[in-house]
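The step that takes the researchers longest sounds almost clerical: writing a folded protein down as plain text. Below is the pair of lines this work produces for a single protein:

——
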Amino acid sequence: MFVALKSDYAPSDALRKELLGFARTRLGPAVAPRELEFVADLPKTRSGKILRRLLRAQELNLPLGDLSTLEGDDLKNNNEH
């Protein structure tokens, strides 16, 4: 699971454990994520939807694919090289 924190929070092992524990309590052990990664920002389309396939591709070192709907140009420019 990927988490983008608000500016008044800092990533830490304690926060990671707290979030994983919360998810386990709310969702149950069978469904709760086992891993959590903090990211600076979640990739979104221009309409504000999170591009989950892009997160998956980055995690698995796969080609990023079509980035034409990506909000901003950061990943688009990195993908061209």
